[in-house]
User: What shape does this take?
Amino acid sequence: MTTVAHPSGTAAAPGLLPSATPLQLIDADGRPGGNPGGLSLPAPEVLGELYRRMVLGRQVDIQATALTKQGRLAVYPSSRGQDACQVGAALALRDADWLFPTYRDTVAILTRGVPAEQALTLLRGDWHCGYDPYQYRVAPQCTPLATNTLHAVGLAHAARLRGQDQVALALLGDGATSEGDTHEALNFAAVWRAPVVFLVQNNGYAISVPLAKQTAAPTLAAKGIGYGMPGVLIDGNDAAVVYAAVRSAVERAAAGGGPTLIEALTYRIEAHTNADDATRYRDAEEVESWLARDPIVRLETYLRANALLDDATTRRLTAEAERLAAEVRDQMNADVSVDPAELFEHVYARPTAALERQRAELLAELELEEAAEEGR
Amino acid sequence: MSTLTSPARSAAPATQAPVPVTMAAALNQALADALTADDRVVVFGEDVATLGGVFRVTDGLAARFGEQRVFDTPLAEAGIVGTAIGMAMGGLVPVVEMQFDAFAYPAFEQVTSHLAKLRNRTRGKLALPVVIRVPFGGGIGGVEHHSDSSEAYYTHTPGLRVVAPGTPADAYRLLRQAIACPDPVIFLEPKRRYWSREAAVLTHAGPPIDRALLRRPGKDVTLIAYGGMVATALEAAEAATDEGWDVEVIDLRSLSPVDDQTLTDSVRRTGRAVVVHEAAGFGGYGAEIAARLSEQCFFHLEAPVLRVTGLDIPYPPPHLEQYHLPNTDRILDAIARLAWD
Assistant: This one.
């Protein structure tokens, strides 16, 4: 038999498949061990910071949800329950690295250092993005799902071409893995060996559609091998393993090892947003069972059992979280100041002649209205 | 000098003698000169490296500038534009190729939701100097999906610049200007004119990216065209002299933003206007021009502004495209209907 030369590669792919069960460093009862794979428990000060950031993030998340009910935020997609993913992923990044978040990743953005008022600008509705992406190396929150994965790959590839040590982390959900852009991003990343990490927060639902209607793959992490990149399946409610897995993928990417696809199993406790009614697609028992797997309680149990956390610290932390939430409440309750003239800025580097005309027309219209108000 | 009017570093000496050049070669030269002038420029897309592009517009660039600057991508247009956005965020100036007009549609979400909007969404913090080159239009006997005129999809999107050269010299100039522009630019290349030849000195100097060009002065009627229809309009203007009409031809160059000043100056003088394009007329780019001229020149008009466009049909197969495309006769017929008495 003769073999015909074919341009396709025949590279072996050892170690690309995820483990059969999710990796875990701290189990559901707060005990060490679980299923570490090759990962090791982060240092105590990292665990302490993971805990602190989760407590702070949770409080802001609860506050933001409350603010939607008072009409102070247009909408808020809560990440309650996904706290370990939000905080673990953001803390695992190095200073020069970039985060590419979606609308559900406000807590990750806060953890990256963006002030809450700026992180909530989009959801309050006074502008689309309230922070400077370059200052925090956080891309604008992405609303069309999965489109951010390609931006992450592009930025990572640019960093490599320019000889800069930067890794991009793309956040996405289980639903977004069905989008074509996710497929293209995974493929481009692998072909280019781009320094990028994909973290899928699999919370079981894309609004109402459960994972079983989203994919027939054994796991989402298993998709990695199809692109030639490692897939890693982790317990998304274990902040320690989220941090360790993302950190390890970041280091691998930075060292030229290419991209990694991580699937974190977690759960969204709140509805999709305040506009959603989750009782139409899931029952209370299911939510209860996940409330019992709270990522903050899990890490707290571990920290206390290992004498890494005491009552004085939790009291201090509770006070800090309440202060932060109160600050957010005050900021969001303050009247929003918007400037209609700004609508014409930033469409192009310089407003076009047509935009200048439209701005003059709008301002004249407003002046007339104001005059009419005064004359009344 | 503003970055909108001229690339940072100049390439072409002004004293050079004109030499015959095709539009494809002029575009190739523009890419080579941009790659030389600015090391942030990268060129990528399907088949652009080893092959040099299906129209050979990127011929030889990978060999000359290396695979770090000029590279092939997987076959995925959303991927090409989406990663270009990330690369621009990361400080590069991507110039990407969509292989054909209709094959750019998978990238539409990246173009409209991100490329066009990110500057606005971030209050000017994120600038995306990305150029998307799109070979567009028909007249080459292409089978289906190879001859679309997709300009109106892009011109309807605020935040994008949309330009289309009509001649080799302008193809060079506009592409250099587009690459130097801080805004994202959809660069529509009239593929039927890739092999048209012109004796020219290639330079980025001249009218800035957002200005229309008077290609032929005339007193009686203003003929407005862009891209592949510029040459057709000039032919029609020449033929119109037999009928005694002195036709002015404007090459729009920039479809968005549009140069209202040049258009209205001309139409106020001539009092008559015809807009020509290959794309279907309904909801097409010509409707915008006709509306603007009615709004801005109404009391100078001797006749309604007419449009000569493609039919309102999906682009026809090669043996039928001649019935669809605007030609000299149709343009002359339109001119004849402009209330001469």
